[in-house]
Amino acid sequence: MLSFILGVSFPSKVTLMRTLCYCAISLLACAACVRQPSLPANSTYNVIGMLNDTAWYGTGKVLRIKEPNQQQLEDVRQFNLVIFTDIDYAGMGGGPNPNTNNGCLDPECTKTQSLVIYNIPLKKGRTTIAKLNKRRKLKHEYASLSYIGNAGGLYKRYIYKGLKPGWIRVTKFDRASGTVEGHFSITFNEDMGVYARLQNGMPETARFTDGLFRIKIKDVLLR
To answer: What is the C-alpha radius of gyration for the chain, rounded to an integer number of angstroms?
Structure first.
């Protein structure tokens, strides 16, 4: 009746519902097409990011660990991300010996920091650090940032306690080249349970933002 009085043709309920469905599908498609950040092709390091708003970089490994009960490497559907750097930090005293400054591109670098994230699904997608920590099989398998001494001893450690942000996303898994790409943002809290931890005035949180990586998989076969 209203359409007759106004001289305007209103769509039927069926047509309206179809239109709304098409709009929803289009929005989802557009969201899926949003370009994810990627490590620059000319990056010197295979891992870069910001740590407490300061540039951070290092050399990472993607470890795909095959257990004895797994028949094929394809059965392994997760990986560990292990990153080392030789960036200086406050309170090192006399400093590492020898002192290196190459982001651990050279295996002979003097490691000062390590960032590890375990049990990351080997497929495209975003996973929270809290979920990854719950999947651990061994007591020590939880995401952490560690400051280490010249002889490899633990001086200070930061662990994930639920602060935001706290996630890692795999944006690409190239099976042909065996390369994994992704990015991460994580806020760690200092682990106050570390024995004789270094008292160096560093902040109680370690916040990684804009973390990017592109790393070739290294397979580890357990016997």
So the answer is: 23
The token pair at 83 is 């990153």
- Could you tell me the pTM of the whole model? 0.83
Q: What pLDDT digit, counting tens, does each position of 53-62 carry?
A: 999 999 999 9
Q: Do the beta carbons of residue 104 and residue 84 sit within 8 Å? A: yes
Query: What is the band of 111 on the pLDDT scale with cuts at 50, 70, 90?
Result: very high
Torsion of the alpha carbons at 82, 87, 88 and 90, rounded to the nearest 10? -60
Type and span of the H or E element at 83: strand 78-85
DSSP state of 183: E
pLDDT in tens, 125-173: 999 999 999 999 888 899 999 999 887 889 999 999 999 999 999 999 9
Listing DSSP states for the chain in one string gives: -HHHHHT-PPPPHHHHHHHHHHHHHHHHHHHHTSPPP---TT-SSSEEEEETTEEEEEEEEEEEEEPTT--SGGG--EEEEEEEE----TT-TT--SS---STT-STTS---EEEEEEEEESSSEEEEHHHHHHT-SSTT-S-EEEEE-TTS-EEEEEE--SPSPEEEEEEEEETTTTEEEEEEEEEEEE-TTSTT---S---SEEEEEEEEEEEEEEEEE--
